[in-house]
Amino acid sequence: MVAATAVVAASVPVAGATPITPDRTAVLQRDADAMLEYGTPGVLAEVDTPHGDLRVRSGFGNVEAGTPVPWDAKFRIGSFTKTYVATTVLQLVGEGRLSLDDKVDKVLPGVVRGNGNDGRRITVRQLLQHTSGLPDYLAGLPDLFTEEGFQRIRYQTITPERAIELAMGFPPEFAPGTQWNYSNTNYMLAGMIIEKVTGHSWQSEVQRRIIKPLHLTNTYTPGTRTTIPNPHAVGYERFPGEGATPDDPKYGEPIDATNLNPSWGGAAGEMISTASDGNRFLRALLGGHLLRPAQLAEMKRTVPTNDGFRGNWPGARYGLGLMYVPNECGGAWSHGGDIMGFKTRNGATGDGSRSVVITFNTDSFKPDPGVQPPATDVSIPLINHALCG
């Protein structure tokens, strides 16, 4: 990738919005600019507040062309998909078609079996909460995480059934309900449950229940479609090099990973959206417009996460497809997402009155020489300034 010799930095109020003070704009712009030294080519953030909406961006959406991330860029949202899927499951619960205490095996008989994994012992709640103990099927797809392997399989289709088959090749990580650990297998199963209960794919139900009612016209469930609708940034991906460790992945040069078959993410991470649509969804969800009060309360009932997760988000607790991170103004409700070429971060106040969505056009950050990686997730300063300003 051509080295960035200049920084593109700009901020604009969203059309029709009440202006935000120059001081607040400057703070958020500085936060966006500061992220570049940690190794993202570009960044775009949109903040929605009761006093107006604001977008800031910095760096490059296309390094070779020297152009910024488009203001209305579409991007892969990765695991932010899980919040849409959890909302759909909870709507089914509110309709009496499913219970959070139903065993997975009741809905998907015989699907979760093997190597000690047993769907007769795991509830729907434990799937959405990541307390099922199920191993992550991504452990069975190591080629995704090497450059040679990724280039070989980036356009292959991985069905939900294949993903679960891969997961069942590993033993459970712990007994259901006894610990917490993030596993994409949980949400691949949640998507399968939606289909079994409704007779329609999870994509169809998310479209019908969330995307269309909220007029999220730039939000997509691509399935096996490999491209991102225009406009979009280039998604750059670096892969670990020889001798890589968790503390030093020894990243090589980035490749263009914009196009890929996202079916391996499925209900755990395939969706595409924009910052504006993401904010609209978060504000509608937390504002009580998508779930009945009982189900929204269940979504916000949290459990402690593990040490690794709290290392990135201090004090983080996880609900049902939504996590809570303490801050100085009452905490942020959010769900980030990472997928080759893109990283999504977000946050919203408990009542949905204020929200922020951030997109980076890489999920493999490589700090500039001499720059220490941030102690916590790179997005936290901007999120806190957006929600607490």
How is the secondary structure organized here?
Blueprint lengths: L8 E5 L8 H14 L6 E8 L2 E8 L15 E2 L4 H14 L9 H4 L5 E2 L2 E2 L5 H6 L17 H7 L6 H8 L16 H15 L3 H10 L24 E2 L17 E2 L15 E2 L1 H12 L6 H7 L3 E2 L2 H6 L4 E2 L4 E3 L6 E3 L2 E3 L2 E7 L6 E6 L19 H9 L1
Antiparallel strand pairs: 1-3, 2-3, 2-16, 4-9, 5-6, 7-8, 10-11, 11-12, 12-13, 14-15, 15-16
Helix pairs in contact: 1-12, 2-7, 2-10, 6-7
Could you give a quick summary of the protein structure above?
This protein is α+β, with helices and mostly antiparallel strands and 389 residues long. It has 12 helices and 16 strands. The strands form 5 sheets. A 6-stranded antiparallel β-sheet has the order 1-3-2-16-15-14, sandwiched between helices. A 4-stranded antiparallel β-sheet has the order 10-11-12-13, with helices on one face. A two-stranded antiparallel sheet has the order 4-9.
Percent strand equals 15-25%
Count every beta strand, where a strand is a DSSP E run of 2 or more residues.
Answer: 16
Tally of DSSP helical segments:
12
Rg, nearest Å: 20 Å
Class of secondary structure makeup: alpha+beta
The string of secondary-structure elements, in order, is EHEEEHHEEHHHHHEEEHHEHEEEEEEH
Query: What are the low-pLDDT stretches, counting only 5+ consecutive residues below 50?
Result: 1-8, 13-19
Named CATH topology of the largest domain? Beta-lactamase
Query: How would the global form be characterised?
Result: globular
Describe this structure as you would to a colleague.
- There is one protein chain.
- 29% of the residues lie in helices and 15% in strands.
- It is α+β, with helices and mostly antiparallel strands and 389 residues long.
- The protein folds into two domains: 1-44 and 51-71, no CATH class; 73-318 and 338-345, 3-Layer(aba) Sandwich (Beta-lactamase), CATH 3.40.710.10.
- A six-stranded antiparallel sheet has the order 1-3-2-16-15-14, sandwiched between helices.
- It is globular and about 55 Å long.
- The two termini are 36 Å apart.
- Mean pLDDT is 94; it is low at 1-8 and 13-19.
